[in-house]
Amino acid sequence: MEATLFTKAVGNTPKIKVLEFLIEGRELDYSISDIAEGAGIGRTTLFRIWKDLLDLKIIKHTREIGNAKLFKLNTENPLVKRMIGLFDEIVIEPLNKKKIEIVR
User: Fold this and answer.
1) DSSP letter string over 33-89?
2) Which residues contact 103 (CB under 8 A, 6 or more apart)?
3) Residue-level pLDDT at 3
4) What's the confidence (pLDDT) of residue 91?
5) How many C-beta neighbours within 10 Å does residue 43 have?
6) CATH number for the domain whose boundaries are 5-103
7) Distances from the Cα of 85 to the Cαs of 20, 23, 74, 78, 103, in angstroms?
8) Tell me, what DSSP letter sits at residue 56?
9) Which of 9, 22, 44, 86 is the most buried (most CB within 10 A)?
10) Average pLDDT by consecutive 10-residue portion of the chain (104 residues)?
């Protein structure tokens, strides 16, 4: 998996990959398998960092569908709000500027 602008700027670790995936889909909730696949990491790797994500309240449990527990980014967490702001500044704002230039 190629490094993105976000991972080039803040680091290309499994935790950052998970954060990037969840920030991109911040309105949705995901199963653990979906998070691992979307972040491009293995489930074993995700389980190694899972406790940190929960303890820091970066993610929160949203609901259950059958046996699957779903989680999403905790956008109420001040740290997460800053990470979203950083992501938007690094990734989204440059894209918006390019769209404006193309329209002109």
Assistant:
1) HHHHHHHT--HHHHHHHHHHHHHTTSEEEEEEETTEEEEEE-TTSHHHHHHHHHHII
2) none
3) 78
4) 82
5) 13
6) 1.10.10.10
7) 12, 10, 14, 11, 25
8) T
9) 22
10) 80 94 96 96 96 96 95 96 92 67 54
In a 13 Å sphere around the CA of 22, the CA atoms on its Cβ side amount to: 27
> What pTM did the predictor assign?
0.85
Domain boundaries, the chain: 5-103
pLDDT at res. 8: 85
The length of the chain in residues reads: 104
Longest distance between any two alpha carbons in the chain, whole Å: 51
Under 8 Å between Cβ of 33 and 18 = no
43, amino acid identity: R
H helices, E strands: number in the chain: 6, 2
**Cα 19 to the center of its chain, rounded Å:** 3
Please give the single-letter amino acid code of residue 32.
I
End-to-end CA distance of the chain: 34
